Protein backbone atom coordinates (compact mmCIF):
# COMPACT_ATOMS: atom_id res chain seq x y z
CA UNK A 1 0.00 0.00 0.00
CA UNK A 2 1.28 3.45 -0.88
CA UNK A 3 1.55 5.97 1.92
CA UNK A 4 1.97 9.70 1.93
CA UNK A 5 5.16 11.26 3.25
CA UNK A 6 2.87 13.05 5.68
CA UNK A 7 2.20 9.65 7.33
CA UNK A 8 5.89 9.50 8.21
CA UNK A 9 6.09 12.95 9.78
CA UNK A 10 7.20 12.74 13.42
CA UNK A 11 7.28 8.94 13.39
CA UNK A 12 9.43 7.50 16.15
CA UNK A 13 12.46 5.75 14.66
CA UNK A 14 13.06 2.63 16.74
CA UNK A 15 16.48 0.97 16.65
CA UNK A 16 16.99 -2.63 17.72
CA UNK A 17 17.80 -1.42 21.26
CA UNK A 18 15.56 1.62 21.73
CA UNK A 19 14.16 4.73 20.12
CA UNK A 20 16.66 6.81 18.14
CA UNK A 21 14.46 9.86 17.72
CA UNK A 22 11.77 11.29 15.47
CA UNK A 23 11.68 11.69 11.71
CA UNK A 24 11.99 15.41 10.95
CA UNK A 25 12.67 15.62 7.22
CA UNK A 26 13.67 13.65 4.15
CA UNK A 27 16.51 13.71 1.66
CA UNK A 28 14.80 13.28 -1.65
CA UNK A 29 16.43 12.10 -4.87
CA UNK A 30 14.87 14.41 -7.41
CA UNK A 31 16.08 12.35 -10.37
CA UNK A 32 14.69 8.98 -9.26
CA UNK A 33 11.83 10.50 -7.24
CA UNK A 34 12.51 8.46 -4.10
CA UNK A 35 13.34 9.19 -0.48
CA UNK A 36 17.03 8.34 -0.01
CA UNK A 37 17.35 9.18 3.69
CA UNK A 38 15.25 10.05 6.70
CA UNK A 39 16.55 13.01 8.68
CA UNK A 40 16.12 11.98 12.31
CA UNK A 41 16.26 14.34 15.30
CA UNK A 42 17.88 12.24 18.03
CA UNK A 43 16.73 14.21 21.05
CA UNK A 44 18.58 14.53 24.34
CA UNK A 45 20.33 11.14 24.29
CA UNK A 46 22.60 12.38 21.47
CA UNK A 47 22.51 16.15 22.06
CA UNK A 48 19.69 16.57 19.52
CA UNK A 49 22.06 15.66 16.69
CA UNK A 50 20.37 15.08 13.36
CA UNK A 51 21.35 11.84 11.65
CA UNK A 52 20.57 10.25 8.31
CA UNK A 53 18.91 6.84 8.26
CA UNK A 54 18.70 4.95 4.98
CA UNK A 55 15.42 3.27 3.99
CA UNK A 56 17.56 0.15 3.50
CA UNK A 57 17.33 -0.38 7.28
CA UNK A 58 13.58 0.21 7.57
CA UNK A 59 11.32 -2.64 8.62
CA UNK A 60 7.53 -2.93 8.63
CA UNK A 61 6.07 0.27 10.13
CA UNK A 62 3.55 0.34 12.95
CA UNK A 63 1.19 2.95 11.51
CA UNK A 64 -1.14 2.96 14.52
CA UNK A 65 1.61 3.87 17.01
CA UNK A 66 3.64 5.86 14.40
CA UNK A 67 6.78 3.75 14.90
CA UNK A 68 9.26 3.01 12.14
CA UNK A 69 11.59 0.17 13.20
CA UNK A 70 15.10 0.04 11.73
CA UNK A 71 17.73 -2.70 11.80
CA UNK A 72 20.49 -0.65 13.39
CA UNK A 73 21.50 -0.03 17.00
CA UNK A 74 21.67 3.22 18.94
CA UNK A 75 25.43 2.69 19.26
CA UNK A 76 25.74 2.54 15.46
CA UNK A 77 23.77 5.79 15.17
CA UNK A 78 25.91 7.42 17.87
CA UNK A 79 29.12 6.58 15.98
CA UNK A 80 27.77 7.25 12.48
CA UNK A 81 29.45 9.81 10.20
CA UNK A 82 28.33 13.39 10.76
CA UNK A 83 26.75 14.96 7.69
CA UNK A 84 25.57 18.57 7.30
CA UNK A 85 21.88 18.15 6.54
CA UNK A 86 21.51 21.73 5.33
CA UNK A 87 23.66 21.13 2.25
CA UNK A 88 23.44 18.68 -0.64
CA UNK A 89 24.87 15.30 0.28
CA UNK A 90 27.75 14.34 -2.01
CA UNK A 91 28.35 10.82 -3.24
CA UNK A 92 31.49 10.77 -1.11
CA UNK A 93 29.36 11.49 1.99
CA UNK A 94 26.84 8.88 0.92
CA UNK A 95 29.56 6.30 0.31
CA UNK A 96 30.99 7.01 3.75
CA UNK A 97 27.58 6.56 5.39
CA UNK A 98 26.66 3.43 3.42
CA UNK A 99 30.10 1.89 4.05
CA UNK A 100 29.76 2.60 7.76
CA UNK A 101 26.48 0.64 7.95
CA UNK A 102 27.72 -2.03 5.54
CA UNK A 103 25.12 -1.27 2.88
CA UNK A 104 25.78 -1.57 -0.84
CA UNK A 105 25.66 1.50 -3.04
CA UNK A 106 22.12 1.99 -4.31
CA UNK A 107 23.37 3.71 -7.48
CA UNK A 108 25.00 0.49 -8.73
CA UNK A 109 22.44 -1.37 -10.82
CA UNK A 110 19.42 -0.76 -12.97
CA UNK A 111 16.73 -0.09 -10.35
CA UNK A 112 15.96 2.71 -7.93
CA UNK A 113 17.82 0.73 -5.27
CA UNK A 114 20.68 -1.05 -7.00
CA UNK A 115 19.28 -4.05 -8.80
CA UNK A 116 15.73 -3.60 -7.51
CA UNK A 117 12.89 -1.30 -6.73
CA UNK A 118 12.72 -1.69 -2.92
CA UNK A 119 15.43 -0.47 -0.54
CA UNK A 120 15.08 -3.34 1.94
CA UNK A 121 16.18 -5.77 -0.78
CA UNK A 122 19.67 -4.32 -0.38
CA UNK A 123 19.86 -5.21 3.32
CA UNK A 124 20.52 -8.93 3.12
CA UNK A 125 22.43 -11.03 0.56
CA UNK A 126 23.74 -8.03 -1.28
CA UNK A 127 27.14 -9.41 -2.30
CA UNK A 128 26.03 -9.42 -5.93
CA UNK A 129 26.10 -5.60 -5.90
CA UNK A 130 29.73 -4.48 -5.82
CA UNK A 131 30.84 -1.20 -4.30
CA UNK A 132 32.06 0.93 -7.19
CA UNK A 133 32.57 4.58 -7.90
CA UNK A 134 31.46 4.20 -11.54
CA UNK A 135 28.92 6.82 -12.47
CA UNK A 136 28.94 8.26 -8.97
CA UNK A 137 31.43 11.11 -9.29
CA UNK A 138 29.17 14.08 -9.87
CA UNK A 139 25.76 13.07 -8.56
CA UNK A 140 24.37 14.71 -5.45
CA UNK A 141 21.18 14.50 -3.47
CA UNK A 142 19.40 17.74 -2.82
CA UNK A 143 17.71 18.60 0.44
CA UNK A 144 14.07 19.42 -0.15
CA UNK A 145 11.79 20.77 2.53
CA UNK A 146 8.75 18.70 1.60
CA UNK A 147 5.81 19.58 3.80
CA UNK A 148 2.07 19.30 3.40
CA UNK A 149 -0.15 22.23 2.54
CA UNK A 150 -1.63 21.87 6.04
CA UNK A 151 1.61 23.30 7.39
CA UNK A 152 1.51 26.17 4.88
CA UNK A 153 5.15 25.59 3.96
CA UNK A 154 6.19 25.54 0.32
CA UNK A 155 6.79 22.27 -1.43
CA UNK A 156 10.14 22.66 -3.11
CA UNK A 157 9.94 19.92 -5.69
CA UNK A 158 9.22 22.15 -8.67
CA UNK A 159 12.40 20.97 -10.40
CA UNK A 160 11.21 17.36 -10.23
CA UNK A 161 7.79 18.18 -11.66
CA UNK A 162 9.43 20.21 -14.43
CA UNK A 163 11.74 17.30 -15.30
CA UNK A 164 8.87 14.80 -15.38
CA UNK A 165 6.84 17.12 -17.59
CA UNK A 166 9.80 17.38 -19.99
CA UNK A 167 10.08 13.57 -20.12
CA UNK A 168 6.36 13.18 -20.80
CA UNK A 169 6.49 15.81 -23.55
CA UNK A 170 9.48 14.09 -25.16
CA UNK A 171 7.65 10.75 -25.12
CA UNK A 172 4.59 12.37 -26.67
CA UNK A 173 6.76 13.90 -29.41
CA UNK A 174 8.32 10.51 -30.18
CA UNK A 175 4.86 8.92 -30.42
CA UNK A 176 3.69 11.75 -32.68
CA UNK A 177 6.70 11.46 -35.01
CA UNK A 178 6.34 7.67 -35.17
CA UNK A 179 2.67 7.99 -36.10
CA UNK A 180 3.28 10.34 -39.02
CA UNK A 181 3.01 8.86 -42.48
CA UNK A 182 5.79 9.87 -44.80
UniProtKB/TrEMBL annotation:
Keywords: Membrane, Transmembrane, Transmembrane helix. The chain crosses the membrane at residues 160-180. It comes from the Bacteria. This is Uncharacterized protein. The lineage of its organism: Bacteria, Pseudomonadati, Pseudomonadota, Gammaproteobacteria, Alteromonadales.
Amino acid sequence: MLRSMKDLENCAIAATDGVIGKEKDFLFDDLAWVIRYFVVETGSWLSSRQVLISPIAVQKPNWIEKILPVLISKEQVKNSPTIDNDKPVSRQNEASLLDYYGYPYYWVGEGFWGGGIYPYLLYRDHQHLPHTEAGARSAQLTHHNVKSEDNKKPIQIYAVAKRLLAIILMQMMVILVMSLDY
